[in-house]
Amino acid sequence: MIFSKQLDKFLSLSAGIAFPLFRKALDKKFESDFKSFGVESTNVCNAKCSFCAYRLGYDGREKGFVNEDVLRHSLKLFKKHGGSNFSFISVLGDPLTDKDLISKIKIIAAEPQIKEINIYSNMIGLDRYDIDEFVTSGVTIISVSTCLGGREMYKKLFGVDEYERAMKNILTLLEANRKHGNPLKITLLIRMYYPVEKNYDREILEKIREYLPKNNIDVLPYDMWDDYNGKIKLPDIPEGGKFKHNLRDKKSPCYALYRKVQVLYNGDIAVCSCRVSPELVTDNIFKYEDLFDYWHGKSLAKIRNEWKKGNIPKICRGCNHYQTFDDMEKLALKEMFRAKIKKLFPR
């Protein structure tokens, strides 16, 4: 463990020192293609989380669900591009509010090329579906946002009195997944008062641990909370939590502009999957027959170039999700060095 930490520090230092030598090659690599692709399933949610700007009307768009035309066209372009990992995660919303979710997942899963389908949910609405059909629908990865701290804590943080329902649905999901041979990778993303270990509902935690290993129960670090550009205040996040630091120096474009193609439920393409704003919408998926043309097109190049000139979208200036494009490249260089070392010194 100690050696692993020392190696990680050494690789980070080495990547930082070597970065200027590799920068042009890394720029070319990251600008050549996107790293991930996703379609927003909906912007409708069944919770009113205190720590989320959804309850404040932050998303000014009309509420809706992705229709089959948007889904099929997006899928067609993604297949043509050679993609295999399909993100079906909402920016602000829960997929289990869509009565047609399973049929849409099956449309995606019917393509042999698609190997992973990823969704994110609080599981409040799972009991609207046949559990066996849901587990075998083709979805492969489920991230569950929840609170294991009892009814009152859940009600305060998630804004709805649905603790018992959510816990029952989570256990039903875990049991059905085991019954079908664990086709789903399930991770619980815990939102609770800190220190978390002192606030667990032990009875429900032990039941969940019968199905999930400890590393599939993930707790957000206390100092990594999002303030949604100042809309969320300190009393809104779990007790003991702190907001993630908002970097003020944002001269380098955000990594989000070079990472993902995010199709919104209505077919618009956004440059970010963390924020919703007309400023971040660059195009529409129906204008394209090839994702390469979008990635190398004028609309995306414009927002990147404007950022480099100092014309940063207003919503991005106050965003604490910001990470520099340089940091993303340094991380890639670090992992390249790690792979080289493993090749030279195999265990």
Structure summary:
The protein has 347 residues and is α/β, with parallel strands linked by helices.
How would you portray this structure in words?
This protein has 347 residues and is an alpha/beta fold. The chain has one domain (1-344): Alpha-Beta Barrel (TIM Barrel). 38% of the residues lie in helices and 11% in strands. It has 11 helices and 9 strands. A 9-stranded mixed sheet has the order 6-5-4-3-2-1-7-8-9. α7 links the parallel β5 (185-190) and β6.
Question: Topology of this structure?
Answer:
Elements: H1 2-32, E1 36-39, H2 68-80, E2 85-87, H3 101-109, E3 116-121, H4 131-135, E4 141-146, H5 151-158, H6 163-179, E5 185-190, H7 202-209, E6 217-219, E7 260-263, E8 268-270, E9 281-284, H8 291-295, H9 298-308, H10 314-317, H11 325-344
Parallel strand pairs: 1-2, 1-7, 2-3, 3-4, 4-5, 5-6
Antiparallel strand pairs: 7-8, 8-9
Helix pairs in contact: 1-11
